[in-house]
Specification:
By secondary structure, the chain is α+β, with helices and mostly antiparallel strands. The protein contains 8 helices and 10 strands. The protein has helices at residues 66-69, 72-79, 104-109, 113-123, 149-159, 166-169, 175-181, 189-195, and strands spanning 6-10, 13-24, 29-36, 47-48, 50-51, 61-64, 83-92, 95-102, 129-135, 142-148. The strands form 3 sheets. The protein has a 4-stranded antiparallel β-sheet with strand order 1-2-3-4, with helices on one face. A 4-stranded antiparallel β-sheet has the order 5-6-8-7. The longest helix is centred in the middle third of the chain and has 11 residues, at 113-123. It is elongated and about 60 Å long.
Amino acid sequence: MEEKKLMYKIDGQMWQVQLYPVYYTYNRSLGICLCKKGRSIDDEDTLEITRCLDAPQTKNCAYIDVNNYGTDIIKWLEKNKLGKVTGQEVQSGFVTYPEFMFDESILQDYTNEHYAQYLKWQKELNEDQEFLIRSCNMCQKEIPLIVSKKAAAQYREYQQGVPYLIQNIFPELSNGERGLLARGQGMCEKCFKKMFDLF
């Protein structure tokens, strides 16, 4: 497929831009940047038009940063036939962020090592699963866990204070994995055993 010619106004001037797919390490979700054609992702004019939110996303979907770019960015994406709004929205602070599903064939035209890694991770998931990435409070190591979307939704409620038992949310996880996710513990199994001299 021939790469689409995209024009976008940056600092009051129209520029030819290209999509630059990235991923967010927090939950291995998709992010999208706009770069001036031929420029690097590190260019100071690069625009990150998505937000990393602690919310479920399906493949090739991302939450659009309407806080900084307004709803016009949605109209621009749709006008250029880059995908479609899914109808899913997430409230964060005072802003409601809409989810947008990008056309995978178009993203493939702009593929890079970040998008390739994102797709590799997506292959590990079933349709009803998502990643939970949590850092150990002791060693700071980031540990990815694959859980059901239903369990992840309950876990978000648990983090807000709903009195679930962690073992009931994640019966399939090991004690060590549940300890990483539990309020008041938040450490990996290795650090827990080291702290209590259990090796």
